[in-house]
Amino acid sequence: MKTKVMFAAIMATVSLVIDVSAQQSALFEPPKDRQLLVIGQDMGAIGGFPKPNNDGYVDHIDIKPGGVTTYTGLTKLGGLKTLVNLYSGDTWAQAIIDNPIYANSVLVIGLHMVDQEKSAANGELDAQIKMLGEWIKQTKRPVFLRIGYEFDGTWNHYDPESYKAAYKRLVTKFRELQVTNCVTVWQASTSPVNGKQADIGKWYPGDEYVDWIGYSWFLSSANQIKLTDGLLAFAREHKKPVMVCESAPQGYDNARLTQRNIYKGIDPKEKTPEKIWKEWYAPFFNYIEKNKDVIRIVAYINVNWDSQMLWGWPYLHGYWGDSRVEVNPDIKKLWLETISDKKWMNSSPTLFQDLGFPAQSDRGT
């Protein structure tokens, strides 16, 4: 009897370890039926810093986000250890890490590689890859790295073969460095503006190199849904969790309560807060809920696009508007009602633990 009891105890312990390992995935995936909310994409947008970056999301929304987004480029790694502004807001990843407001928020980094993928693939940027990996290690939190984000966007003109080779080399180097707190995100643009479905598989590095699959969502059109449906089908086929890497109501101005032509910013149409919510936010969140089996992280861009030189008049990159949820009390109220649902994971002292950090795997990334 004693032997049976000991055997049962051992099996129970093994089952517990297996169960914990399953929950504490090295992918830093939220528990079942929960989703992580991330806010971006520059210091002014997220807020919580000295002037002029003290009028953002966290300065008006009491619920701190579960994650924040930032950007850097592989060649110079600008915005990582020092502040840079490329006419689209201040970016400075180390300042985010050092800010106690974000002590319990994951970091999502968009890694720009346009016209750099061939150099990265042939080893010319190994020193930068090492520097990036070592920096990520010292953050001591989950980091999601969007390598060459929106790889299929015509504006990025990534060569598929060079892109895949660069992606693989970076992942391999990170594994050699044992950057265990970083997972990779392979992000498509899913852009209705392109007008067609790209063969995204041409850019796919392989299941062994991709942890998450991501997409962008700026319009709530039928074509946006069709393109995203295709990406989710790809993710399900490859058994990968999905991140909404970039999202905002393009063409809408939450402050002025208008909607304009997304190409030239002309023909403003007045909208009530409820109408804006019904036309963009409701379809956005409904789609996420409908596909919650695979969509596990949602990153929203909370920015006054029109105030930034890159995105403002004369709208050389299209008209974006003002996607800040805090600038209108009715939109803010609807936003808070939505993200207050217990299914949304926001900043908390147990967030990293709930995501399985530190990783229980030696897979490297």
Fraction of residues in helix: 25-40%
**Given the C-alpha coordinates, what overall shape results?**
globular
Query: Helices and strands: which structural class?
Result: alpha/beta
Number of H/I helices: 10
Order of helices and strands: HEHEEEHEHHEHEEHEEEEHEHEH
- Rounded average pLDDT: 92
What is the strand tally? 14
Strand order in the sheet with the most strands: 1-2-5-6-7-8-9-13
Largest sheet: 8 strands, parallel, barrel
Q: Which CATH class?
A: Alpha Beta
Which strand-content bin applies to the residues? 15-25%
Number of domains: 1
Ends distance: 45 Å
Radius of gyration: 21 Å
Low-pLDDT stretches: 1-25
Query: Would you identify the CATH H-level superfamily?
Result: Glycosidases
CATH architecture: Alpha-Beta Barrel
CATH fold assignment: TIM Barrel
Write the layout of secondary structure elements.
Elements: H1 2-23, E1 35-40, H2 43-46, E2 67-73, E3 84-85, E4 90-91, H3 93-98, E5 106-112, H4 117-121, H5 126-138, E6 143-147, H6 160-177, E7 182-187, E8 212-217, H7 222-237, E9 242-247, E10 252-253, E11 258-259, E12 269-270, H8 273-290, E13 295-301, H9 329-339, E14 344-345, H10 351-354
Parallel strand pairs: 1-2, 1-13, 1-14, 2-5, 5-6, 6-7, 7-8, 8-9, 9-13
Antiparallel strand pairs: 3-4, 10-11, 11-12
Helix pairs in contact: 5-6
